[in-house]
């Protein structure tokens, strides 16, 4: 029985039954309680100025390793010395979830105390040459300099470092799996790169593959959109089925329905064979449509119903509807506005493939991968331009000039363009190493030297760049010729540009 109480007597909070108390009083939580979304798991640290090894005469296998500069530091050959002007930093390999410290620099052409470096505000780095090997910054001799992202520091005939904003630790992959391929080489899907953008792309592709939703791949020409589409297919539970690929721009406008959905025998013309169409071929598999932005809006409408969950479509001449359990992976280098809004809405996953300009620190690794592929296709290239160790093909022989010119080149067609430029170097080579030939020089033109001054960029230019890059901060900064994404973020704040929907953490 419930104890009687006198009329009009109020109960103290402790006397009120728990189920009758206000919600705010039913559970008392500590202000120090950490909720699940307040916890971090293997979180990344903030990016810091870093030197990425882009070329080394004595240690070419170490290309891609980084020296992260968190404070005043000394860089040189070998272990720490008692008279180092600052704490010595050594190279490391950074991968999602873990970092591999590497042995000290062993390049005999680098002094024991070669560089003194110190980070500055705005991601810049002060560099002083304190060793015997001459230093060049962006091709000009210098004893000291202030450098920013994408600047080049060359130690003559010894090593080339690319300045980059890098994190010395990366968050663990969503899956918890560590990369299963050797450092600096293509992964099992042919994707090359050790930058944060490259690893983030791999994680996005893996996540998209784990679902059954449609995917839109965005990015400039030559960034490897078909490679990414094949990776999604290979990582998905559809991998046992044949991957179906077609360029949407080649679909004949007059018979697009027949191409997409197929037709019954004898329709629309007598004697015409029955065809399953692309959707029929891709049942329980992946359909990749490249250059989907070239498909007129009235033709995009033809795919809308088939892209819904039931996958319903109808072959020409057929009286009954069919269903295809296909996943559409489409690709375009056009702005999102080129796609019909309800067509665009059906792509749950939208993945931006970074350009070479966005991940310039991966370029030496991509370059090496393309040369290895050429050598495997033509043994004479391997014999002429590659070192051999233990009877096996090792590193390609390339001059520091070729590496610096390619690193300072502004690419418009990315990996496809880089591949063509390397073939020019191969075809015009007069020695047993690859260098800048007259034919290649004509293609490269003037090197990218200095970035656009921030004062030259106004609000309208920023808005156009963000629109063209689908809100990608790093891509917009490159398009504007700015040194890095942080300069653009400061300009956005200065001009009060609306960045709603923009991924300000895209790098």
List the helices and strands and how they pair.
Elements: H1 23-26, E1 48-56, E2 66-68, E3 73-75, E4 92-95, E5 98-101, E6 115-119, E7 125-129, E8 135-137, E9 140-141, E10 144-147, E11 152-155, E12 159-166, H2 196-209, E13 215-218, H3 225-235, E14 244-247, H4 256-261, H5 277-281, E15 286-290, H6 297-300, E16 312-313, E17 322-323, E18 327-332, H7 341-344, E19 349-352, H8 363-377, H9 379-385, E20 386-389, E21 392-396, H10 400-407, H11 414-428, H12 438-444, H13 459-468, H14 473-480, H15 485-495
Helix pairs in contact: 2-3, 8-9, 8-11, 11-12, 13-14, 14-15
Number of discrete helical segments: 15
Question: How large a portion of the residues is in β-strands, by DSSP E?
Answer: 15-25%
Largest sheet: 6 strands, antiparallel
CATH superfamily of the largest domain: P-loop containing nucleotide triphosphate hydrolases
Physical arrangement of strands within the biggest beta sheet: 2-1-12-11-8-9
Shape: globular
Which range best describes the helical content: under 10%, 10-25%, 25-40%, 40-55%, 55-70% or over 70%?
Answer: 25-40%
Number of strands: 21
Instruction: Supply Rg.
Output: 28 Å
Describe this structure in words.
It is a single chain. This protein is of the alpha+beta class. The chain has four domains: 48-166, Sandwich (Tumour Suppressor Smad4), CATH 2.60.200.20; 196-352, P-loop containing nucleotide triphosphate hydrolases (Rossmann fold); 360-444, Helicase, Ruva Protein, domain 3 (Orthogonal Bundle); 454-495. It is 25% helix and 18% strand. It has helices at residues 23-26, 196-209, 225-235, 256-261, 277-281, 297-300, 341-344, 363-377, 379-385, 400-407, 414-428, 438-444, 459-468, 473-480, 485-495, and strands spanning 48-56, 66-68, 73-75, 92-95, 98-101, 115-119, 125-129, 135-137, 140-141, 144-147, 152-155, 159-166, 215-218, 244-247, 286-290, 312-313, 322-323, 327-332, 349-352, 386-389, 392-396. The strands form six sheets. It has a six-stranded antiparallel β-sheet with strand order 2-1-12-11-8-9, with helices on one face. A hairpin with a 3-residue loop joins β11 and β12 (159-166). α2 crosses α3 and α8 (363-377) packs across α11 (414-428). The protein is globular. 36% of the residues are buried. Mean pLDDT is 87; it is low at 1-11.
């Amino acid at each position: 029985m419930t104890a009687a109480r006198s009329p009009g007597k109020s109960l103290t909070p402790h006397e009120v039954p728990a189920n009758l108390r206000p919600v705010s009083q039913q559970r008392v939580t500590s202000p120090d309680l950490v909720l699940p979304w307040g916890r971090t798991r293997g979180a990344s640290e903030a990016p810091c100025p870093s030197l990425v090894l882009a070329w080394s005469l004595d240690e070419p296998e170490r290309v891609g390793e980084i020296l992260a500069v968190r404070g005043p530091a000394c860089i040189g050959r070998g272990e720490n010395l008692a008279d180092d002007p600052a704490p010595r930093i050594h190279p490391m390999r950074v991968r999602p979830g873990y970092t591999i410290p590497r042995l000290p620099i062993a390049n005999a052409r680098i002094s024991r105390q070669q560089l003194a470096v110190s980070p500055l505000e705005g991601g810049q780095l002060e560099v002083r040459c304190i060793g015997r090997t001459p230093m060049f910054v962006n091709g000009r001799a210098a004893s000291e300099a202030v450098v920013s992202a994408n600047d080049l520091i060359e130690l003559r005939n010894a090593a080339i470092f690319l300045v980059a904003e890098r994190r010395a630790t990366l968050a663990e992959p969503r899956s918890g799996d560590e990369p299963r391929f050797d450092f600096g080489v293509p992964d099992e899907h042919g994707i090359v790169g050790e930058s944060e953008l490259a690893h983030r792309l791999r994680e996005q592709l893996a996540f998209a593959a784990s679902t059954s939703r449609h995917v839109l791949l965005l990015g400039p020409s030559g960034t490897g959109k078909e490679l990414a589409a094949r990776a999604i297919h290979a990582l998905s539970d559809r991998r046992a089925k044949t991957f179906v690929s077609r360029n949407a721009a080649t679909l004949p406008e007059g018979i697009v329905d027949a191409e997409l959905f197929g037709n019954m025998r004898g329709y629309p013309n007598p004697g015409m064979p029955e065809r399953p169409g692309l959707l029929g071929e891709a049942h329980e598999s992946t359909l990749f449509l490249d250059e989907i932005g070239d498909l007129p809006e009235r033709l995009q409408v033809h795919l809308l119903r088939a892209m819904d969950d039931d996958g319903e479509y109808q072959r020409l001449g057929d009286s009954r509807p069919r269903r295809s359990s296909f996943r559409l992976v489409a690709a375009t280098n056009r702005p999102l506005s080129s796609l019909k809004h309800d067509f665009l809405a059906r792509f749950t996953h939208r993945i931006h493939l970074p350009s070479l300009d966005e991940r310039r620190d991966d370029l030496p690794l991509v370059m090496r991968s393309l040369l290895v592929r050429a050598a495997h296709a033509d043994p004479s290239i391997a014999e002429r331009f590659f070192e051999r160790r233990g009877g096996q093909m090792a590193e390609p022989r390339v001059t520091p000039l070729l590496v610096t010119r390619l690193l300072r080149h502004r690419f418009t067609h990315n990996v496809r363009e880089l591949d063509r430029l390397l073939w020019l170097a191969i075809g015009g080579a007069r020695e047993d190493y690859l260098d800048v030939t007259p034919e290649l020089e004509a293609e490269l033109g003037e090197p990218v030297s200095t970035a656009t001054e921030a004062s030259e960029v106004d609000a309208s230019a920023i808005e156009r760049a963000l629109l063209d890059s689908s809100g990608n901060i790093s891509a917009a900064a490159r398009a504007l010729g700015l040194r890095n994404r942080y300069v653009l973020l400061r300009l956005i704040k200065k001009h009060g540009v609306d960045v709603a929907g923009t991924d300000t953490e895209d790098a």
